[in-house]
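Quick one: structure for this chain?
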Amino acid sequence: MASINGVIETTLELRAYEMRVSNIKVETDLAKDLPQTLADPNQLQQVILNVIVNAEQAMTEAHGKGVLRVSTCRASAGIRISIEDDGPGIQPDHLKQIFDPFFTTKGVGKGTGLGLSICHGIIKEHGGSVEATSTPGVGTLFTIELPLVAGQQVAPKAKRAAPRPTAPATILVVDDEVSIRELMRDALETRGHTVDVAESGAEALKALAAKPYDLLVSDLKMPEMSGQELYARVQVEHPALAMRTLFTSGDTVSTETKAFLERVGRPYLLKPFLVADLVEEAERILAPAAAPAAETTSP
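Got it. Here's what it folds into:
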């Protein structure tokens, strides 16, 4: 059984520092009598975190500050979660497509448009719904409704075995889409790992030159320097880390991408993926070498 209020409070704690430094005020109104429901709290956290990170980015880019309102209440269908921001809003023609895979309102090279598609899929798996309403220039409201499921009914998805304990590691996450980048960082940090993020291959190389890492998680499709080009540099400059690299990709049809993944033989996750899959795969890679990275940077 999952406490929806508990999931929301934990998620807001994860983002508390980032929102504080971004001048974003958080207002909550969580119903005290909200019942628990049979659901996957990790998946629900992924949904809420994605919506919050998108709201943060929109408000910060629009006016350098903002107000985020999060509330819960009983609804006729079960439980309602409302997440509202005072950002720039979304144009009506875009609003109809925001849950479609690969649709994004962000500029070229700033996002794949997979975050909200993942959210929609997770909520649908739980038998619920997620909708967005928006007024341009005023803000956007996301409304999530979940059914009340009690007792021993079948959960939306079979519960996976908990990841085996892994020694805390230092991980570098590279992705040009901020919401996915932050989502991965928060998920891995909750497992006790130290996570740095980079929005480009060039930024990743600077981070790699500054200190050693136990694991590299990199998107393949990025502007300027692709994940393939980054990996080629890593193979030469940080060969040990090249063997501890996990790729992510929303490109499921490109023959070039498929050929690359087959050639290098490194594990990968296809977007949209679940946070639980990311944690499981990352810790599987880390498990054989639990000791901290001892690699030195090539001159």
